[in-house]
Amino acid sequence: MDLRKIARSLERERCSKHNEKPTATPKRDSIEISCCCESFRKKIANKMEFEIAKEAENDIKKAFKGW
Ligand SMILES: [Zn+2]
Question: How far is the CA of 35 from the centre of ligand 1 (A)?
Answer without folding.
Answer: 7
